[in-house]
């Protein structure tokens, strides 16, 4: 398998962590989806990463589709329950974590995208996205509480997705002091940060 990704994409990081947790081999192909001619465009019409290329040339996207497929490739450490309420719960928390990322990425692009002049930047829209981050963090923290993991007694995709969202806030929004306000999430992130899969996929600092 070949994974087209960016080292700074939190969605791609989620896929890379799942691949590492499942102990599956793949070739990482780096691409910049914001360039004029991203390589991923040849495989994903949306021009977004991550994109997983399978033998035979078939392509899978987006991250939620990829991680669901990858989780079926090995019985080792299933990250998504096979059926029922537990499965829906894990996928719901993944959806909320991805939604937080959508808001964070959207707000950041509104603030820094070079093609938009400063006078055209919309602060109320940015504030609306930042508000989504705040309420999402509160919902995550309230659900986690004193539990060791988001769903069940073991690591699941819900924890990985939330960890990637929190990691992105650390990376792009260091002024958001979520640890002070949500100690339950801080405990979870401390635990996730000790896993090799999270350590090996940290975004570059420069």
Can you describe this structure?
This protein has two domains: 2-71, Glutaredoxin (3-Layer(aba) Sandwich); 84-195, Glutathione S-transferase Yfyf (Class Pi), Chain A, domain 2, CATH 1.20.1050.10. The chain is built from eight helices and four strands, in the order E-H-E-E-E-H-H-H-H-H-H-H. It has helices spanning 10-21, 63-71, 84-112, 123-144, 157-172, 178-181, 183-192, 196-199; strands at 2-5, 27-30, 51-53, 59-60. The radius of gyration is 17 Å and the shape is globular. The model has no long low-confidence stretch (mean pLDDT 96).
Short overview:
This is Glutathione S-transferase. The protein is of the alpha+beta class.
Key features of this structure:
206 residues; alpha+beta; Glutaredoxin; Glutathione S-transferase Yfyf (Class Pi), Chain A, domain 2; 2 domains; four-stranded mixed β-sheet; 51% helix
User: Roughly what is the average pLDDT, rounded to an integer?
Assistant: 96
- How is the CATH topology of the largest domain named? Glutathione S-transferase Yfyf (Class Pi), Chain A, domain 2
Count the E strands.
4
Our Rg estimate from Cα atoms comes to 17 Å
CATH class of the largest domain: Mainly Alpha
Q: What is the number of domains?
A: 2
User: So how many helices?
Assistant: 8
Which geometry do the CA atoms define? globular
Main-sheet strand order equals: 2-1-3-4
Unreliable runs: none
Assigned CATH architecture of the largest domain: Up-down Bundle
From the N-terminal CA to the C-terminal CA, the straight-line distance is: 28 Å
Largest sheet: 4 strands, mixed
Q: What structural class do you assign from the helix and strand content?
A: alpha+beta
Order of helices and strands: EHEEEHHHHHHH
Residue share in helix: 40-55%
Strand content: 5-15%
InterPro entries: Glutathione-S-Trfase_C-like, Glutathione-S-Trfase_C_sf, Glutathione_S-Trfase, Glutathione_S-Trfase_N, GST_Omega/HSP26, Thioredoxin-like_sf
Domain GST C-terminal: 83-206
Domain GST N-terminal: 1-78
Protein name: Glutathione S-transferase
